[in-house]
C-alpha cells in the first residue's frame, strides 16, 4: 500500500499491519538480497517495522545507508553500486526523505518500484512527520499537489513534431558545410561559415542530448537511452554514461558544496560566499583568486569543452571501461575526419575540429553558468526540493531567440524542479510554479539574457574579494 504523507498519522493500525504484511509477503517472493539480516541497530524487525527519523539518520555511512521514499524506509547500501543514475545520487540523500527527488528523476515510477521491493525495511512510525529536518510540510504538500495536476493535464507528455523539427535542423546544420565545401571549395569565408554552422549544430545537439538524458522525449525510456547514446556519442563525440554520472548529481543537490560536481573547479576558481572565505582563512592561494573574474575569460569559456571536458571524457571511458560509449565516441571522430580530411588534410581537419569546439565551448559556458554561479552556493542545508532548486537557479526572460539559443534553459527553474518534463511545456508551467513560490515566499528570479551573463563576472569578482579579505585579515 502506498502511504499518503497527509493521512499517515491517522491511518488505522489494522490497515498499517495489513500493509506491512503484504510488503513482507511480497519481499519473501522477490528475495531480500541479503539486506534484512544486516539491519544495524534496528533489531530483526522485518518489513513491517516502524522507524523514527533518528533511527533512519543513524544509517548514513558507506555500507550502511538508508533513505525514505513516501514514508517507506529502504536500505540502499548495496543498490548504490548498481543504481543506473550513479551511486552518488543515492548517497546524497542518505538519511533523508528522497520522495520528491525520486519522483523528479523517474518518469515510470511503477516500473522502478519493482527494484525497490527487495530493499524495503519498513516505514516511518505514525508519530513521525513525513518530512525530515523540519521542512515546511504545507509547502511540500502543495508542491506535490501541483506536480500531480501537471501530470494529469498532460504537461509531462511530448509533442513529437517539436523534436522531429529540432533534430532536423541539427542534421541540416551538419550537412550544409559539406555542401558549401563541395560547391565553393575550402576558402576562408566558406571555412568560417562551416565552423559556425558546425558549432551551432554541436550546441543544439547538446541541448537535445540533455533532453534525452533526462528521459523527457519518448514515452518509453528505452528509446530515450538509445537516442541519447546516438546524439551525445555520434553527433557530439562524448559519453552518455559520463554525462549521466555528472549531471544527475548536479540536479539532485545543485550548488551544494561537496555534492554538486559542477562546483568542482579544480581549485582554479572559488565560488559563492562561503568557499572563498574558507580558502582565505586556510591561506590557500592556488590561483590569484582576486583576479578570477579576469582570467575566467581565458580558461573558462574557451577551454572547458576542448580541453577539460575532452580529457575527462576520454579518461572516464578508459578507466570505467564504457566500451559501448567508446564506440559511439569513435564513430563521431571517424565520421568527422572522413568528411573533412579530403578538403583540409589531416592537420587542417584537426584545426577545424578544435576551432568548432572552441566556439561551442563559449556558447555552452555562458548559457549553463548564468543560472547557477551567481546564485546561492552553500553546504547541505536539507532544504525541501522546491526551495533547494529555487535557491540555486534562476530564469532568463522568455523569447523565441532565448528559447532556441539556450535550449529552453532560460526556464532553468522549471527544468530543475521538473527535470523529466519536455522543455516545450515550461512556458505553460512557469506561471503556476511562480504563483506557488510567491505563496510561500520562495524567491523566483528572472533576468535578462545579458544581465544573467554579466552576473557571472560580478559573482566571480565578489567571491575573489571575499577570498582576498579573508586571506589578508583572518
Automatic annotation (TrEMBL):
<keyword id="KW-0812">Transmembrane</keyword>
<keyword id="KW-0275">Fatty acid biosynthesis</keyword>
<dbReference type="InterPro" id="IPR005804">
    <property type="entry name" value="FA_desaturase_dom"/>
</dbReference>
<dbReference type="Pfam" id="PF00487">
    <property type="entry name" value="FA_desaturase"/>
</dbReference>
<dbReference type="InterPro" id="IPR036400">
    <property type="entry name" value="Cyt_B5-like_heme/steroid_sf"/>
</dbReference>
<keyword id="KW-0560">Oxidoreductase</keyword>
<feature type="transmembrane region" description="Helical">
    <location>
        <begin position="161"/>
        <end position="182"/>
    </location>
</feature>
<feature type="domain" description="Cytochrome b5 heme-binding">
    <location>
        <begin position="48"/>
        <end position="125"/>
    </location>
</feature>
<feature type="transmembrane region" description="Helical">
    <location>
        <begin position="188"/>
        <end position="208"/>
    </location>
</feature>
<keyword id="KW-0443">Lipid metabolism</keyword>
<dbReference type="GO" id="GO:0016717">
    <property type="term" value="F:oxidoreductase activity, acting on paired donors, with oxidation of a pair of donors resulting in the reduction of molecular oxygen to two molecules of water"/>
</dbReference>
<dbReference type="InterPro" id="IPR001199">
    <property type="entry name" value="Cyt_B5-like_heme/steroid-bd"/>
</dbReference>
<keyword id="KW-1133">Transmembrane helix</keyword>
<dbReference type="Pfam" id="PF00173">
    <property type="entry name" value="Cyt-b5"/>
</dbReference>
<keyword id="KW-0472">Membrane</keyword>
<dbReference type="GO" id="GO:0016020">
    <property type="term" value="C:membrane"/>
</dbReference>
<keyword id="KW-0444">Lipid biosynthesis</keyword>
<feature type="transmembrane region" description="Helical">
    <location>
        <begin position="326"/>
        <end position="352"/>
    </location>
</feature>
<protein>
    <recommendedName>
        <fullName>Cytochrome b5 heme-binding domain-containing protein</fullName>
    </recommendedName>
</protein>
<dbReference type="GO" id="GO:0006633">
    <property type="term" value="P:fatty acid biosynthetic process"/>
</dbReference>
<feature type="region of interest" description="Disordered">
    <location>
        <begin position="24"/>
        <end position="46"/>
    </location>
</feature>
<keyword id="KW-0276">Fatty acid metabolism</keyword>
<dbReference type="InterPro" id="IPR012171">
    <property type="entry name" value="Fatty_acid_desaturase"/>
</dbReference>
<comment type="pathway">
    <text>Lipid metabolism; polyunsaturated fatty acid biosynthesis.</text>
</comment>
<comment type="similarity">
    <text>Belongs to the fatty acid desaturase type 1 family.</text>
</comment>
<feature type="transmembrane region" description="Helical">
    <location>
        <begin position="295"/>
        <end position="314"/>
    </location>
</feature>
